[in-house]
Amino acid sequence: MINILKINADDTFPLRHKILRPHQPISQSCFSGDFDETTAHFGAFQQSKIIGIISIYKTDTSSISDHDSWQLRAMATEENSRGKGVGSKLLARAEKHSLENGAFCVWANARFEAIDFYKKSGYSIFGNEFNIDGIGLHYLVYKNV
Fold first, then answer.
1. Please, which of 7, 57, 67, 135 could form a disulfide with 104 given CB 3.0 to 4.6 Å?
2. How far apart are CA 137 and CA 129, in angstroms?
């Protein structure tokens, strides 16, 4: 059974580093806004082990919406836990949090490899692909909640 629980920013750093930033120092796994009052972090737990994470930040992206928008960041799932609904549960919990806090739109800079996941979750692509140095190709994806 997978439980999705609110966690602290510090609890996300090991999995962020392992999955998303393995070739960078772990210090690069702490993002601007991680400790803001409006930011929320969620972990997917199997027994007592974190097997997935997601963070959501209150941000503006006037190119997509003039209303309150929230950015998803640092979604990661342990490799042996992929394809089991962990990411979908994390995404749904982050979307619910943003909606409860007045969001109109949720968006993310999605890695090229994750585009199909976001499309299946109701997200649309906005604009063209772009490169984030040292990370790879991304698309801006969004969903009205």
1. 67
2. 7
Low-confidence residues in the chain, pLDDT < 50: none
DSSP string, the chain: -EEEEEE-HHHHHHHIIIII-TTS-GGGG--TTTT-TT-EEEEEEETTEEEEEEEEEEE--TTT-SS-EEEEEEEEE-GGGTTTTHHHHHHHHHHHHHHHTT-SEEEEEEEGGGHHHHHHTT-EEEEEEEEETTTEEEEEEEEE-
pLDDT tens for 116-136 read: 999 999 999 998 888 888 788
- Among 100, 145, 139, smallest CA distance to 117 is for 139
